[in-house]
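It would be a great kindness if you could assist me with a short task in structural biology. I am sending you one protein, given as its amino acid sequence and as whole-number tokens for its backbone shapes. I would ask you to consider whether the tokens describe a fold that such a sequence might reasonably adopt. The full record is reproduced below for your convenience.
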Amino acid sequence: KGIARFSIRAVKTLLLDDALRPQAVAAGICDVLVQALKHWKTNTSCSCEILASVQTLMWDGSVVNQLVEQGVTPLLLYHLQSPDLEITLLSLATLANLLACCDSL
């Protein structure tokens, strides 16, 4: 769990770099993050890091459609019900980013 958490944190750092984000998207990071969120959805610390990475990726409006196609929306709705406040807030912020781009979906 610790290795997974720190790996996702490294992915988030990679996604913060505007120059590297397009390469990560082209390499399939959207699918990787959605699959990771499905796999670790019951683990609070891993889910937190993955949701932060998804939120970071959604800053790029052109990527939102890919994440929606991969099935991120039901996972975000699932995490809204989490008893952990940080996970709930990250899910809510990510859904807000998604809704801000919904006119282009």
Q: What stands out?
A: Residues 21 and 60 are 9 Å apart (CA to CA). The mean pLDDT is 89. The radius of gyration is 12 Å.
